[in-house]
Design brief:
alpha+beta; 40% strand; globular; 110 residues; 6-stranded mixed beta sheet
Length: 110
Amino acid sequence: AHRGQRSFALHADNAGMLGFGQFYPRWQRIHLSRIAVHPAHRGLGVGKVLVHELLAAGRAKHDLAEFGLFVYRDNDAALTVYREAGFAVTSSPDPAATIDGCDYMTRPAN
């Protein structure tokens, strides 16, 4: 676990958990992690809502200028959600922490 870590879940009364995600401070950014959408609810905009809520909660909790996250290069759905939310691929602030098959993405916190 990371210090300051916050976890969020999206629920629907008739469908249970739709998605899950976390954020915490890392590398002077608000780092989003473990973002997942239940397979039965993919393609319905749940990821977009979840990322929007994580961004809002991260801004409210931490006074940092940027967000960051890792994403698997072959996860087209996640890449689309993150790009639409303003994220762009950039170099990892710690190459030793880079995950095989992943890119690091950032966006301004404002």
